[in-house]
Amino acid sequence: MPAKPTPPRMRVWVTRSEPGATALARAVEAAGFDVAKAPVLAIRPLPFTVPQGHFDIAVFLSLHGVRSAASQVNHCFDRAFAIGRQTAAALAEAGVSAQAANVESSEGLLDSLPDVQGKRVLLVTGVGGRNRIAPALAEQGADVQRLDVYERTPVAPTIDPKQIDAIIVSSGDGFRQAVQVWFASKGASGVPILVPSDRVAALAAQLGVSKVLRCEDAGAAAVVAALRQMAGANG
Fold first, then answer.
1. E strand or H helix at 213, and its extent?
2. Interstrand relation of 150-154 and 41-45 (parallel, antiparallel or unpaired)
3. What is the domain-level CATH number for residue 207?
4. Shared-domain flag, residues 16 and 110
5. Closest C-alpha among 147, 184, 139 to residue 64
6. Are 173 and 129 in contact (CB under 8 A)?
7. Which of 78, 77, 135, 80 lies closest to 106 in space, CA to CA?
8. How many CA atoms lie within 13 A of 188 on its CB side?
9. Cα dihedral angle (216, 113, 69, 98), rounded to 10 degrees?
10. Least crowded by CB within 10 Å, which of 76, 88, 120, 234?
11. For each of the chain's 235 residues, which pLDDT tens digit applies?
């Protein structure tokens, strides 16, 4: 009896910005998927002035913030917290010990922070985004200083929808830009799109896509787990 032909491997479009795109692509490839790595957002560092005074806590919301500012601000705080393990690892490389959130999201980070009542908090981030953490910390009685050290700019890579079986997005802004590129390339609205949170998933209706899969968070392990679940269901 002839052997069954080996089914083609699922090809996944990784849309997140660098350096996270390369790390995520490696994890996805190691899990047995093919990858089209084509970020839809580019990161541009911004000039900034290190705030005066000392902070009890510094919070880093992305790898971009670490790369842009860690070496300049590492003298002005007592404790550091990171939104995820990769961000914490980048801080370690910069000589800063940081605690990573258990769940890689704004909510997960807020749950991981200590009592901030009366504390000075430095929030190292980029222009735009959700702006969820600063108001939440202020409500808890913290004196929050937001430091924008980079900005995101949209990119329109060339893709072939016929070669893409699923799309991975890592943020609301990335979701919007990826869908715009996808539809401009004549991609179908039913392509599976993996998202990092319910909040990002809720954008699907207004963006005109119909199949969104919720990952546990934006980390590589969560994305791979969701891809495996999807591949198993399709198999």
1. strand 212-214
2. antiparallel
3. 3.40.50.10090
4. no
5. 147
6. yes
7. 135
8. 9
9. -80
10. 234
11. 444 444 468 999 999 998 889 999 999 999 999 999 999 999 999 999 999 999 999 999 988 999 999 999 989 999 999 998 889 999 999 999 999 998 888 888 999 999 999 999 999 999 977 778 999 999 999 999 999 999 999 999 999 999 999 999 998 999 999 999 999 999 999 999 999 988 899 999 999 999 999 998 888 899 999 999 988 766 5
* 197 domain-assigned: yes
**Residue 75 within a domain:** yes
Phi, psi of 9 (to 5 degrees): -75, 145
> What pTM value is reported for the model?
0.81
User: What is the total residue count of the chain?
Assistant: 235
Domain final residue, candidates 104, 130, 152? 152
Rounded-to-integer distance, Cα 81 and Cα 101, Å: 7
| Nearest Cα residue to 194 out of 4, 69, 46, 27 | 27
Structure tokens, 50: 């290190």
Per the listing, tokens 């699907």 go with 204
